[in-house]
Amino acid sequence: MKVWSISRAVGLFTGDSRALLIMISGAVLLAGWIWLQQNPQHDPLAPLDLNDPPGWATAGKFADLPGNQALCHQVLTRSNVAFTALPGVGDGPCGLPDRTQIDNPMVVPGNAIATCPVNAGLALWLNHGVQQAAQEHLGTQVTRILHLGTTNCRRINASQTAPWSEHATANAIDISGFVLANGEYVSVLQHWGEGEKGDFLEAVRDSACYSFRTVLSPEYNADHADHFHLDQGTRWARVCR
Ligand SMILES: [Zn+2]
After folding, report:
1. What's the helix, strand, coil split of the chain in %, to 5?
2. Could you state, in order of their start, the residue ranges of all structural domains in the chain?
């Protein structure tokens, strides 16, 4: 009797159970495929759309943008981000091969020129970081984002020997504050670590890390006491602090 039971169990495993296993595996794969179609931010093969929230595959897709202007412009166009592609100028450490004008009226002063990946990073951050943080922490919306500039032909910390700053190639933007729909102002210098506006600033700093390679805030060092530095440099290590 026992021998018969064992041989029957083996038979089931090698016959019916195998079919069942294949069916379950197929169902799991199909469910995974449907889920990825509904959540393209997690799908490494789905094209980057800046209207999608950040997901598991977002950083990898952003890593493809530096040095590939055509791909980056496709991303901006697909995401309905307004921009003006300008001809590159100069060469060497301060050459500007990628000059993409930021045509977003929220970004003040207007018509700043940065690389396309910086434009793309800003768009995702505005779509899925800044407004959510304003609503959550301040109960309002952001109407203006104030920046200190994008382009500056200098080395890091203005040192004579340090590597060139990402600002040398317009591959960075420095954000100093935000104007809210109720007319109030949130300043990195005045409000970092201070109450609800401080909580908002910390949240927008953190969310910038989804779409920028490097994010430096007052927490990083005293040189950033009055602004967030956001850049798309291709150095190996990401920095988000
Ligand atoms: Zn900077």
Report:
1. 45, 20, 35
2. 1-38, 47-240
Ligand 1 center–CA 157 separation, angstroms: 10
Distance CA 90, CA 214 (A): 25
Amino acid letter at 109? P
| Mean pLDDT score across all residues of the chain | 92
- Expressed in angstroms and rounded, the spacing between residue 229 Cα and the centre of ligand 1 is 4
Which residue's structure tokens are 């954000």? Answer: 175
Q: How far, in Å, CA of 85 to CA of 99, rounded?
A: 6
Q: What is the pLDDT of residues 187-219, one digit of tens each?
A: 999 999 999 999 999 999 999 999 999 999 999
d(CA 175, CA 186): 11
Beta-carbon neighbours within 5 Å of ion ligand 1: 172, 174, 229
Is the model's pLDDT at 7 over the cut of 60? no
Q: How far is the CA of 188 from the centre of ligand 1 (A)?
A: 14
203 and 210 Cβ atoms separated by less than 8 Å: no
Question: How much is the pTM?
Answer: 0.88
Per the listing, tokens 């700043």 go with: 112
Residues 131 and 138: beta-carbon distance below 8 Å: no
Residue 111's pLDDT band (cuts 50, 70, 90)? very high
Query: Is 171 in contact with 115 (CB distance < 8 Å)?
Result: yes
| Distance from the alpha carbon of residue 230 to the mean position of ligand 1, in angstroms | 6
Collect all residues with Cβ–Cβ distance below 8 Å to 21 and sequence separation of at least 6: none
Provide the total of helices (H) and of strands (E) in the chain, helices listed first.
Answer: 8, 10
